[in-house]
């Protein structure tokens, strides 16, 4: 019984040491994350093996694990850029990105955990200045927004190529022009719209006028043709046909043959 405390004391010390070591060796990687292993005594950052995936891991207490978000992320960036004629433009853009999973070790080794500030944001700023500098404020404000967005994406993708970053999308959220330039553009666009509406009304009125003229011309031609075809002989034949039909009618009437103009019959009804 007297020896029990002497034996129990070293066991307790060992248990405490094991618990401390285990707490330092246990690493839990959350959902949407991955870990880069750094071996202190064996070559540093591990780049030739896949990163540690989600879940619980045991690593040597003298090694380290750097945890990265590997899901798609969004970075909002506001910047001042110059248009083609040197005017100051405020541009707000969002970039969707994520680190390349299988190259996470190289990303950590070469760019570090600050890769967003060191690589991505400078790339998007450089691309935006290059692209916006090709356009006038009027183009930026109206018709070229989608083209500018696509060009910024392509320019940024070229810059980050080989930097272990996967670029998914660039969205231009807002383009802010100087107030005087914006007002001038809006007035010009309004005048152009009014001009287009006026031209449309003129074209419509012209087409309506042409339609009326064509219809009138058609009626005139028809009357002229009809008048030319109605000779005295035709009128007499038509009159005779009408007289025959009327004579067959049961209604009482008096027909005077050859008493009308041009020898046409005169029909007298009983009323």
Automatic annotation (TrEMBL):
Principal location listed in the UniProt entry: membrane
Any Gene Ontology CC annotation: membrane
Topological relation to the membrane, as annotated: Single-pass membrane protein
Intracellular or extracellular location(s): Membrane
SUPFAM superfamilies, A to Z: Band 7/SPFH domain
Source organism superkingdom: Bacteria
InterPro entries for this protein: Band_7, Band_7/SPFH_dom_sf, Prohibitin
Domain spans labelled Band: 24-189
PANTHER family named among the record's database cross-references: PROHIBITIN, PROHIBITIN 1
Protein name: Prohibitin family protein
The organism of origin for this protein: Aestuariibaculum suncheonense
